[in-house]
Amino acid sequence: MNARTLPRLAFAFAVAAACGFAQAKVVTKSVAYEQGGQKLEGYLAYDDAKSGARPGVLVVPEWWGLNDYVKSRARQLAQMGYVAFAADMYGNAKVTRDPKQAEEWSSAVDNGGLMAPRSKAALEVLKEQPQTDKSKLAAIGFCFGGSTVLQLAYSGEPLAATVTFHGGLMPPKEDQLAKIKSPILILHGAEDGFVKPETIDQVRASLDKAKVDWYMVTYANAVHAFSNPDANSFKIPGIGYNEKAARRSWAEMQDFFKEQFKR
Amino acid sequence: MNARTLPRLAFAFAVAAACGFAQAKVVTKSVAYEQGGQKLEGYLAYDDAKSGARPGVLVVPEWWGLNDYVKSRARQLAQMGYVAFAADMYGNAKVTRDPKQAEEWSSAVDNGGLMAPRSKAALEVLKEQPQTDKSKLAAIGFCFGGSTVLQLAYSGEPLAATVTFHGGLMPPKEDQLAKIKSPILILHGAEDGFVKPETIDQVRASLDKAKVDWYMVTYANAVHAFSNPDANSFKIPGIGYNEKAARRSWAEMQDFFKEQFKR
């Protein structure tokens, strides 16, 4: 480097700063917490190069548990300037690739009525982080995690945004209608065989009855788990990755966040 | 201004340039053309401060004709860096606020099989503009215009993107399936009484059969004409403005364009 290049470099950096390009320095850490006596271990990600409090995003995994896919989504959110916390819904951050095991674990959470309280416990961890702007919180979830964040919203959690990616959909119960405060974005695969058309109608009708601010995007040729690049590796009929739907749904979420967080 | 402020100013301008802030200078003009012996008069808008060819967007009006609303959308597109051409579907740029008149004019175009050829004629005008990058063309339409751009896409026009805002939806005919080349974005009000649920099912099934890249956004509590701030002034049951759906659908279109035009 010589004297002539220096000013140019300085200018380049000044421009970069002025344009808001800063090198993200994403740090991740495992955070232990508890819910109903169950030890849990979530995955926190944020940009350490960024100062000040920023919106927090809770990320709820697919029924496989806190795997690499959901961790990669948490890191992406951190790069985007959010504090992301990926929840452990099963305990000890356990994961599986066996559908029978995943079915067993997720059913236990569902049948135990733990979707809302357990995800809420993770939300509290996210709130406690010094980087988190507690007034700007969202929850996103994939498949089983999508159902979970819907339950969190149905429980009355005042989230700025709730986003379900190819989630199992279910209408809120009658006694939940008056509680729902969060706007909801439903990202759905047109060919998702895990969600019946009549269920979608019920969800829409109930959310309308509850005067919820919702909208839904339906992606052609997308099946369950369309956002997960590893989906095909599970070799399960009706589960597969769709690059277009994955990209579009992630962009959709970002627009929704920008709107709700007024960023 | 003194010698000390000058370098700072120079720097500020350099940063502005580097960040791509430039003052848009939108020019608009009426362009006369013809289709099937009918004299037509469209509305062109582009940013004169911008140099070089850029993507072109055809804009097809609601059944009211080439009114202020659709012109404002064309100017918005110009500000966004596109060349926009709002089509005249009726001749002599005539407009009305009378539903009976609008019904008569739009039915004449529809029943005459003129939706595709007449919008295609406007597309040709857009292509001829020196500012237009002929390899990057899209068509958007509102209500009747939404139906029209679908027909343009169904006719086989190789558009990079086709977007219908609260358009009347209809499936392509069997002999059109193999022709469709354009990706299609359907922006729809959940409460749009002008489109039957079974029609939506037919459209989806046909587009899937045609292997079209499509996706659809459904906005809660939005009825027909949700994107038009003047919609309520017509005092027609089932037609009304929805600020959220208007904003979200416009952002959706922009994301779709960025994706399809690789901008």
Descriptive tags:
homodimer; 263 residues; alpha/beta; eight-stranded mixed sheet
Task: Report on the architecture of this protein.
The structure is a homodimer of 263-residue chains. The longest helix of chain A has 19 residues. Chain A contains 7 helices and 8 strands; from the N terminus they run αβββαβααβαββαβα. In chain A, α5 links the parallel β5 and β6. Chain A has 263 residues and is of the alpha/beta class. Chain A has an 8-stranded mixed β-sheet with strand order 1-2-4-3-5-6-7-8, sandwiched between helices. Chains A and B meet through α1, α6, β8 and α7 of A and α1, α6, β8 and α7 of B. β8 of chain A pairs antiparallel with β8 of chain B, so a sheet runs across the interface.
What share of the residues of chain A does DSSP label as strand, in percent?
15-25%
> What is the end-to-end distance of chain A?
38 Å
Biggest interface, residues from each chain: A-B, 27 and 27 residues
Mean pLDDT score of chain A: 93
Shape call of chain A: globular
Main beta sheet of chain A: 8 strands, mixed
Q: What is the subunit arrangement here?
A: homodimer
Rg measurement of chain A, Å:
19 Å
Order of helices and strands of chain A: HEEEHEHHEHEEHEH
Task: Provide a brief overview of the structure.
Two copies of one chain form a homodimer. Chain A has 263 residues and is of the alpha/beta class.
